[in-house]
Amino acid sequence: MAYFEHEGCNLHYEEYGHGDPLLLVHGLGSSTLDWEMQIPALAAQYRVIVPDVRGHGRSDKPRERYSIAGFSADIVALIEHLKLGPVHYAGLSMGGMIGFQFAVDQPQMLKSLTIVNSAPEVKVRSRDDYWQWFKRWSLMRLLSLATIGKALGAKLFPKPEQADLRQKMAERWAKNDKRAYLASFDAIVGWGVQERLSRISCPTLVVSADRDYTPVSLKETYVRLLPDARLVVIADSRHATPLDQPERFNQTLLAFLATADIHPQDH
């Protein structure tokens, strides 16, 4: 268990294994535990670094506005703190958004980028978008985090044999700091870097569950905007693919990282 400080905030991270550095960044309302099924498999070949995003897990939860750019700056500070040089980066959901921000701002700091069930923008455009956002925003303010965690667990892990995952999700969600959780949710809505995707020159893997919140077609659209990207769709999976299809996910990521290592960037 290690900490470093950035702009007065103590940020928690964990390290496993040896080799080229690989950062794994979790989603909204989660923590390093998003990656518990990945760390053993990946740490056999890589130096795996798993941070808790500001406002999450064991990191500080300062009373301030959060932003995706701010979360990305924390990642840059962690890389500099550990003197890592260029890294492999994998992010789930909000962690993927942080990855996109990091990649367009600091393309030279990346060896490869993996985006899991995420997008390069969350724009509220139509009346329906606004209504969907307002509904979520209101529910999150009205309901307890324990209630939200139970509902999320049921949605993400609906199968009878996923009872343990449902229970874990409910327990973990209930431990969130509500104010930090809402501030992180607010950081996502309206954010976007889609118009800057051509800056991302490193090999990019986009992983989409076949039953993610947003359709596979959305990922196909932005994959076409990335200079060196491929899309892999994982069957029988929902938003938390690393947890509900760990073996398939680990194989997919390791195969991609092996090719990214063989073809380092020209510059």
Automatic annotation (TrEMBL):
Q: Which GO terms describe its molecular function?
A: hydrolase activity
Q: Which UniProt keywords apply?
A: Hydrolase
Q: Say yes or no: keyword Hydrolase present.
A: yes
Provide the transmembrane region boundaries. none
Span of domain AB hydrolase-1:
21-244
**Keyword Flavoprotein among record annotations:** no
A Gene Ontology cellular component where this protein is annotated is: membrane
Superkingdom of this protein's organism: Bacteria
InterPro entries according to UniProt: AB_hydrolase_1, AB_hydrolase_fold, AB_hydrolase_sf
This chain belongs to the protein called 3-oxoadipate enol-lactonase
